[in-house]
Design a protein that fits this description.
By secondary structure, the protein is mainly α. It has helices at 4-28, 35-67, 76-81, 89-109, 113-135, 141-179, 183-201, 208-238, 242-258, 263-305.
């Protein structure tokens, strides 16, 4: 984790430097109140810096938790709350279970996927604390059975909320990808949706819904790439650049053969593109013949005009 104090100090120094730079420029320009726009600009820079750090750190923390796999990483907050005495494990788990139940209900009632991911974090903490309690020798068999039963309930909630987070996040990002105008932005949004699904697959690699959604998004990415090159080829045809159009159609064929596409879709698209390439090659050949015929006729006409 980068230093919060260092980042804030740097942002503050940048804001102050911007304030004085704008203030000096406005004073030189004869502004009557130069400190107002300078102060506003410095405030905006400081707010943007703070917001950017919050977003970046949240995403970094999410990636860190997912990269740990299914080993049950324990967050620092849970470490601070865990009592040192082993006899307090039962009360700690009971309090954690009540928190999980409450936040689980709130997440199911809301439409924010991040709330489901927060509950997933809490389940990770609960399972890690339960494993630590089971490793101790101070618990009776009844308490051990109760902890194992609680872990089974939490594992069910953990799966539910992680799958819900992956499904809702992927759905939102896929919808966003369909709304984007630029090809690069559409592919970027689709890749983010695919990353959510693959993160969930690290925990549940046999989940059919995740696998099917991943295949669908990969096919969407492939269709976007192919459609991009086909559109460029059609533009080249419209401008009369037939050779360039053929090259771009071949790029589309490359992505068709490389990306994950259904076999029937691949065969139909390949056949259509190859037919377009053949038509363009025929046009190029016809254009060469049209250029050659006037030259031949002109040569014959010159021979007839020559004196005998």
């Amino acid at each position: 984790m980068p230093s919060s104090a260092g980042y804030l100090l740097g942002a503050l120094v940048a804001a102050i430097a911007l304030f004085f730079a704008l203030w000096w420029m406005l004073v030189s320009g004869g502004d009557e109140a130069p400190w107002i726009p300078a102060g506003l600009a410095a405030s905006v820079v400081l707010l943007v810096a703070l917001s950017a750090r919050e977003v970046v750190m949240r995403r970094a923390w999410t990636r860190y938790l997912l990269d740990q796999g299914g080993d049950g990483p324990v967050r620092a907050s849970a470490e601070r709350k865990r009592p040192a005495a082993k006899s307090h494990f039962t009360s700690l788990l009971s309090a954690a279970w009540r928190t999980i139940q409450k936040q689980s209900e709130e997440a199911d009632a809301a439409s924010n996927p991040e709330l489901h991911f927060d509950v997933f974090h809490l389940c990770q903490d609960y399972l890690a604390t339960g494993d630590e309690a089971l490793r101790s020798n101070s618990l009776a068999s009844e308490k051990r059975n109760a902890i194992r039963a609680g872990q089974e309930r939490v594992r069910a909630l953990q799966k539910h909320h992680l799958l819900t987070w992956a499904r809702d996040s992927a759905r939102t990002l896929t919808y966003e990808a369909h709304q984007r105008a630029r090809t690069s932005e559409r592919i970027e949004s689709a890749n983010r949706a695919l990353h959510c699904l693959e993160s969930a697959l690290q925990f549940y690699p046999q989940e059919v819904e995740l696998l099917e959604s991943s295949v669908a998004i990969r096919e969407f990415i492939a269709s976007v790439k192919v459609a991009h090159w086909v559109e460029l080829a059609e533009r080249s045809v419209f401008k009369g650049h037939y050779r360039r159009a053929i090259d771009r159609y071949k790029d589309a064929l490359f992505y068709l053969s490389r990306e994950s596409v259904k076999e029937e879709v691949r065969m139909a698209s390949t056949e259509r593109i190859e037919r377009e390439i053949e038509l363009l090659q025929a046009r190029i050949h016809a254009r060469k013949n049209d250029r050659a015929e006037p030259s031949s006729e002109r040569g014959i006409g010159d021979q007839e005009k020559m004196p005998r």
